[in-house]
């Protein structure tokens, strides 16, 4: 399955890609959701000694119940569906505009399109991610005593409390590292599109296993390169006392630099990668399955609607 080359912007084909991306992310994230729970606990709870993902999952299940492994599932899935819809729609709209006729896709174009799609996604969906981070960690048993505990009744109540107690700007907490982290999906899509073009040379159909592996490799590279900033992003989104003062761009930059320096002083450079094992397991497997579902859903839809030509780069 290969893209919308030559299709008009805001077309049916672009919408199919967006919906397929949202469906793929929902299925993949639900499948590997406990790994995301482990990852975010390791990022935020600095005093937790356990670094092994399987051991941490057993600890959480024993202390808080098995349901705790899926805490915050609904807001995460809601955020992901919106986020991936925006991302895939923007990416494929740009692709329809810039890659058509005799114009060939290149790694540089892939990177630029992914960066623009990522920035658009961040600006529109960050409030949902701030809320879902808070809800995901609500009720967790932390080792770090000074972590602020919240009491939200749901998504709407969380939005209301954050706006009332912390101000509207707090809904965009962590947006600076989020904008920088546009590089993560950008790198991922650049490698994914490039590897897919190489594998599908001469019109060869890419197998499901190949799509899974290409998605896994692309995500592993992107995640390892940007992980320290993902940790800063999680902390800034979750802890109101750290993010309340980020009213200007300069203060946001200072907050990120300060958090990075604190982590390095306390735990050394390896401390920036605490939770990487859980993150790699979660994101690599999730991304690989997401791309597989995305390609197959879009491919089947185009075939049913008689638009198989539109499904080829």
Protein architecture, described:
Residues 1-7 and 308-313 have low confidence and may be disordered. Helix 1 (12-31) runs antiparallel to helix 12, helix 2 (33-44) packs antiparallel against helix 12 (276-304) and helix 4 (73-98) runs antiparallel to helix 5. It is built from twelve helices and no strands. It is 70% helix and 0% strand. The longest helix has 31 residues, at 107-137. It has 313 residues and is mainly alpha-helical. The protein is globular and about 60 Å long. It has helices at 12-31, 33-44, 53-64, 73-98, 107-137, 155-166, 175-180, 183-199, 208-238, 240-243, 249-267, 276-304. It has a single domain, classed as Mitochondrial carrier domain (Mitochondrial carrier fold, Alpha/alpha barrel), CATH 1.50.40.10.
Sheet/helix structural class: mainly alpha
How many E strands? 0
Based on CA atoms alone, the radius of gyration comes out at 20 Å
Q: What gross morphology would you assign?
A: globular
What share of the residues does DSSP label as strand, in percent? Answer: under 5%
Strand-and-helix sequence, N→C?
HHHHHHHHHHHH
CATH class: Mainly Alpha
What is the number of helices? 12
Q: If classified by CATH, what would the architecture be?
A: Alpha/alpha barrel
How far apart the termini lie comes to 8 Å
Give a short account of the largest sheet.
none
CATH homologous superfamily title: Mitochondrial carrier domain
Give a short summary of the structure.
This protein has 313 residues and is mainly alpha-helical.
What distinguishing features does this structure have?
Mitochondrial carrier fold; single chain; mainly alpha; 313 residues
């Amino acid at each position: 399955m290969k893209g919308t080359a030559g299709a008009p912007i805001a077309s049916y084909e672009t919408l199919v890609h967006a919906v397929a991306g949202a469906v793929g992310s929902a299925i993949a994230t639900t499948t590997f959701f406990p790994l995301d729970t482990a990852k975010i606990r390791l990022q935020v709870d600095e005093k937790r000694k356990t670094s092994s993902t399987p051991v941490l999952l057993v600890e959480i299940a024993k202390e808080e119940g098995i349901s705790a492994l899926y805490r915050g599932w609904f807001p995460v899935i809601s955020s992901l569906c919106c986020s991936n819809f925006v991302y895939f729609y923007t990416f494929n709209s740009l692709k329809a505009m810039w890659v058509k006729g005799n114009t060939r896709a290149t790694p540089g174009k892939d990177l630029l399109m992914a960066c623009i799609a990522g920035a658009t996604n961040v600006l529109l969906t960050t409030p949902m991610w701030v809320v879902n981070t808070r809800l995901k960690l609500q009720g967790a048993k932390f080792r770090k005593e000074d972590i602020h505990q919240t009491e939200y009744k749901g998504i709407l109540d969380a939005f209301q409390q954050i706006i009332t107690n912390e101000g509207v700007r707090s809904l965009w907490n962590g947006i600076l590292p989020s904008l920088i982290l546009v590089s993560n999906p950008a790198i991922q899509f650049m490698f994914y599109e490039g590897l897919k073009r190489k594998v599908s040379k001469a019109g060869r159909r890419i197998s499901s296993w190949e799509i899974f592996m290409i998605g896994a490799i692309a995500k592993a590279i992107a995640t390892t390169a940007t992980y320290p900033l993902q940790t800063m992003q999680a902390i800034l989104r979750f802890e109101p006392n750290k993010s309340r003062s980020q009213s200007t761009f300069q203060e946001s930059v200072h907050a990120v630099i300060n958090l990075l320096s604190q982590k390095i002083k306390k735990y050394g450079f390896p401390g920036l990668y605490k939770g990487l094992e859980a993150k790699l397991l979660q994101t690599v497997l999730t991304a690989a399955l997401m791309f597989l579902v995305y390609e197959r859903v879009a491919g089947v839809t185009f075939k049913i609607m008689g638009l198989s030509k539109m499904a080829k780069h």
